[in-house]
């Protein structure tokens, strides 16, 4: 098992290893004063691991109830959020009790937001079960639900008490979810440098989960520690996300987040070569790595549609579009440009090779 410490305003540890789910009850007992635990999960994850987790908590002396919703982004809304709060209230959860988020990023985001706001904030722990949640959404304290007008429109920063990532739970992931998580890992490699990049070029991520997840969590924790509330350096974590989010939105969210990010990274790097920020060899190497993990590098939408979708993103303002430009492996920078300049970048980004 590896432990990564996240020195956020509210510091915590991320435990990563094979088989460690059995220690969840002991850790909860050691790190909280809770007597009751509400396990928030989706139907798919619950059917695989719910009873096991409920038993582990029961054996450690907790009264544990579940609160389930249908899997998928469509559930990440105010209605589900309200249902979770009602369930917690009905279960008699107090401010000392704990929410256990058992699932992917959807579960983690909504359970975290419910924990952050129930009785003005009660403890919660993240038990990520997707690769994406393990390397990204379970760490860093962003919680949210979607509005019809857009993703993550309501939420807050609220750090978990700890994150427990049992890599054995990833064995049941569908290939598409493995790919989505791999895209975020490629993003970390582009931000961090050659060592991680070469490690995932040479050996499949799934053969080295513990090492790769730990490395990614270390990288993310560095950004979170320096800029917990996402005002500066943390924005680099959005490499590939400006075009990626636009691609997701254009597809009406049929294209999942990780796939959108892969397309976004490939596209913005293509444009960075066009504008002289990055060497073509880097772009070719990144595209090859993305494709190794079964992810696409071509943008399936027109420039105008992407522009319209990107302009609605909450990270952009009325006059400024913001995106991350890769200059090399381990060398990326935030760029802010006017709408017309962004349009030029988009044209270069979508150009067929
Ligand atoms: P998800 O939570 O919808 O999970 C994807 C699918 O995998 C679901 O159908 C789920 O039931 C299934 N699943 C989960 N674990 C499984 C397992 N072990 N075996 C089999 N199936 C399993 O999606 P996700 O990709 O994990 O997360 C995406 C969400 O995360 C989005 O809402 C996004 O906005 C959010 N996100 C948040 C942050 C953050 O910092 N808070 C960062 C990135 C993404
Ligand atoms: N997923 C980006 C962040 O946590 O900032």
Description:
By secondary structure, the protein is α/β, with parallel strands linked by helices. 47% of the residues lie in helices and 20% in strands. It has helices at residues 24-31, 43-59, 78-90, 105-117, 131-137, 175-192, 194-202, 209-226, 241-250, 257-274, 280-292, 303-311, 339-350, and strands spanning 2-6, 12-17, 36-42, 63-69, 98-103, 124-128, 142-147, 150-157, 162-166, 321-328, 331-337. The chain has a 4-stranded parallel sheet with strand order 4-3-5-6, with helices on both faces. Strands 1-2-9 form a 3-stranded mixed sheet, with helices on one face. A hairpin with a 2-residue loop joins strand 7 (142-147) and strand 8. Helix 6 crosses helix 8 and helix 10 packs antiparallel against helix 11. The N and C termini lie far apart (43 Å). The site of glycine has 6 residues, from loops. Nicotinamide-adenine-dinucleotide is lined by residues 42, 44-45, 48, 71-73, 76, 103-107, 109, 129-130, 132-133, 136-137, 140, 142, 151-152, 169-170, 172-173, 177, 180, 257.
Number-wise, the strands total 11
Main pleated-sheet profile: 4 strands, parallel
Distance between the termini: 43 Å
Task: Output the strand order for the largest sheet.
Answer: 4-3-5-6
Which structural class best describes the helix and strand composition? Answer: alpha/beta
**What number is the mean pLDDT?**
96
Helix percent band: 40-55%
* Overall form: globular
Distinct small-molecule ligands in the complex: nicotinamide-adenine-dinucleotide, glycine
User: Count of helical segments?
Assistant: 13
Rg from C-alpha positions?
A: 20 Å
Proportion of strand residues: 15-25%
The string of secondary-structure elements, in order, is EEHEHEHEHEHEEEHHHHHHHEEH
Low-confidence sequence ranges: none
């Amino acid at each position: 098992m590896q432990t990564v410490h996240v020195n956020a305003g509210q510091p915590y540890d991320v435990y990563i290893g094979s088989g460690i789910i059995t220690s969840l009850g002991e850790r909860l007992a050691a790190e909280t004063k809770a007597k009751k635990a509400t396990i928030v999960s989706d139907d798919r994850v619950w059917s695989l691991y719910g009873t096991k987790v409920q038993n582990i908590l029961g054996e450690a002396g907790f009264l544990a109830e579940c609160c389930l919703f249908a899997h998928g982004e469509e559930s990440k809304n105010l209605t589900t959020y309200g249902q979770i709060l009602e369930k917690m209230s009905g279960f008699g959860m107090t401010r000392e009790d704990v929410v256990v988020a058992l699932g992917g990023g959807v579960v983690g985001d909504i359970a975290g937001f419910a924990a952050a706001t129930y009785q003005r904030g009660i403890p919660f722990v993240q038990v990520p079960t997707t690769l994406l949640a393990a390397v990204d959404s379970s760490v860093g304290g962003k919680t949210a639900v979607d509005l019809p007008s857009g993703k993550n429109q309501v939420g807050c920063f609220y750090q978990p008490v700890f994150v427990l990532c049992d890599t054995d739970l990833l064995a049941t992931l569908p290939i598409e979810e493995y790919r989505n998580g791999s895209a975020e890992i490629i993003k970390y490699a582009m931000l961090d440098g050659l060592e991680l990049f070469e490690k995932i070029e040479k050996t499949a991520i799934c053969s080295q989960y513990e090492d790769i997840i730990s490395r990614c969590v270390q990288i993310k924790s560095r950004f979170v520690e320096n800029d917990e509330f996402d005002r500066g350096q943390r924005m680099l974590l959005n490499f590939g996300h400006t075009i990626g989010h636009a691609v997701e939105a254009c597809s009406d969210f049929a294209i999942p987040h990780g796939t959108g990010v892969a397309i976004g990274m490939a596209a913005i790097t293509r444009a960075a070569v066009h504008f002289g920020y990055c060497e073509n060899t880097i772009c070719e190497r990144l595209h090859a790595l993305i494709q190794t993990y079964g992810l696409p590098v071509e943008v399936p939408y027109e420039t105008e549609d992407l522009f319209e979708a990107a302009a609605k993103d909450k990270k952009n303002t009325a006059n400024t579009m913001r995106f991350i430009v890769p200059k090399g492996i381990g060398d990326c920078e935030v760029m802010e440009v006017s709408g017309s300049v962004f349009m030029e970048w988009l044209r270069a980004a979508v150009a067929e090779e």
